[in-house]
Amino acid sequence: MDETAPQKGTVTQRAIERIKAMIAEGRLEPGQRLPTERDLAAQLGMSRSSMREAIRALTVLGVLEARHGSGIYVTQLEAGDLLETFGVVADLSRGPQLVELLEVRRVLESTATALAAARITADQLAEVEKHLAAMNATDDPEEILAHDLAFHRVIAGAAGNDTMAAILEGLSSRTFRARVWRGYEEEGAFARTRREHAAIHRALVARDPEAARAAAAAHVGEVEEWLRAQLGA
Amino acid sequence: MDETAPQKGTVTQRAIERIKAMIAEGRLEPGQRLPTERDLAAQLGMSRSSMREAIRALTVLGVLEARHGSGIYVTQLEAGDLLETFGVVADLSRGPQLVELLEVRRVLESTATALAAARITADQLAEVEKHLAAMNATDDPEEILAHDLAFHRVIAGAAGNDTMAAILEGLSSRTFRARVWRGYEEEGAFARTRREHAAIHRALVARDPEAARAAAAAHVGEVEEWLRAQLGA
DNA sequence: ATCAGCAAGGTGGTCGGACCACTACCACCC
DNA sequence: GGGTGGTAGTGGTCCGACCACCTTGCTGAT
């Protein structure tokens, strides 16, 4: 049955690898229900405690989903499921690493915006305009931030690459933006932000990918430069 | 002390959030040692089992590091630590999602290669050439793949953005490349790959960022197109 | 005084069992 | 037929014990 236990690493770590392998090999399909914790532990010859730690780890990674009273299921393994952990990176990064993260976001956001200029539908464009208008209609920083996030989220969604959208979502997580925003607003940056968003919107309406790419890159680049200056000071 | 337990979500989930918050707020510095599992569990008013699941989850995320017999420590929270989980995404993605992942890689890899063209040092360039030569000197697919990975790794490192390099590392994880490689080689793609790598190298030597960007984008784009065709067939 | 070697305490790792909270399902009653 | 209750089964939590490993500091010979 089992060939001379490999004995490498902790028992829990082995269980994580085993389950991951089962999914990678297709023995577990997305959405499928796993055996119970007790059965799984017995199958792999370990205690339920260790198996639970493995399951918890894979749950946090977005690979598994535990439903109390029902069972354990494989997620759909879509971009949103697996890349949710990306937000943790943004939340815990500091100093120079934030600039690097912002640089990655600039590259991806500009590409996504360019793609969106070519592919965005009328409905999506209307939604973009809704958030743009809402953003200009209020002075509440909290609300502005929310519509700012939604503005970019709709655009990223219109680009047609869910994986890229999911990464950008993580790179723009609430705490990340809030941290940078705190000081950014105190420099009359709101007016500039509104101008930049308007420029992005114009490029989308004109269906001009290159203009959209430039506008998005400049938009993120502004924040990037500001943050870089902050760190140097 | 504790203000009317929030009682939202599972106990373990709460513990994960609490520890993450401690780090985000700076109460736990990178490299610092945490209290023992037993103490932590007592402090947060939960069992050791639940606390262990929380710690295991954060360990898998690359936030904490447990050293048997010594204690639990916060990692350096560098790009490499936190983005290791990115490899899981690549390993478990399939079908259309692989194409999306490759599209993200094309965007980042071309940018990184362009940056490298401007910033690469003589030593790094020599290392690039070493892997290029080694790649051309053998016909063993396994060895070619290894040098291929190293080739791009050195370039990504020379770009000066560790975060971007770490993401690209995950996007090029062993199993991911191996899976795509399997069928890719059977079409005389090796010769083409060598030509493309040579083109990237020439652009680096010429310190021509735009040429480097184009060469890298074309290189990844080739694989991307091939994979897209495979899925359609 | 120096240092190799050993011993004890502390730490994470594993195990087994017990009980709770919740869900799904089905037989039952109106 | 449609609620209604119960019941078995699931994940969630807790406890206590023991093991494997590291760290520390003492011991003792050199």
In short:
Two copies of one chain form a homodimer. With 233 residues, the first copy, chain A, is mainly alpha-helical.
Describe what you observe in this structure.
2 copies of one chain form a homodimer. Chain A has 233 residues and is mostly helical. Chain A folds into 2 domains: 11-77, Winged helix-like DNA-binding domain superfamily/Winged helix DNA-binding domain (Arc Repressor Mutant, subunit A), CATH 1.10.10; 82-232, GntR ligand-binding domain-like (Four Helix Bundle (Hemerythrin (Met), subunit A)). Chain A has helices at 11-24, 37-43, 48-60, 79-82, 86-92, 96-119, 122-137, 141-158, 162-171, 174-184, 189-205, 209-232, and strands at residues 64-67, 71-74. A two-stranded antiparallel sheet of chain A has the order 1-2. In chain A, strand 1 (64-67) and strand 2 form a beta hairpin. The N and C termini of chain A lie far apart (64 Å). Residues 1-5 of chain A have low confidence and may be disordered. Chain A binds chain B through residues 12, 16, 20, 23-24, 49, 52-54, 56-57, 59-61, 63, 77-79, 82-83, 85-86, 88-89, 91-94, 97, 100-101, 103-104, 107-108, 111, 161-164, 167, 175, and chain B through 12, 16, 20, 23-24, 49, 52-53, 56-57, 59-61, 63, 77-79, 82-83, 85-86, 88-89, 91-94, 97, 100-101, 103-104, 107-108, 111, 161-164, 167, 175. Chain A binds a DNA duplex (30 and 30 nucleotides) through residues 10-12, 36-38, 46-50, 52, 55, 66-72.
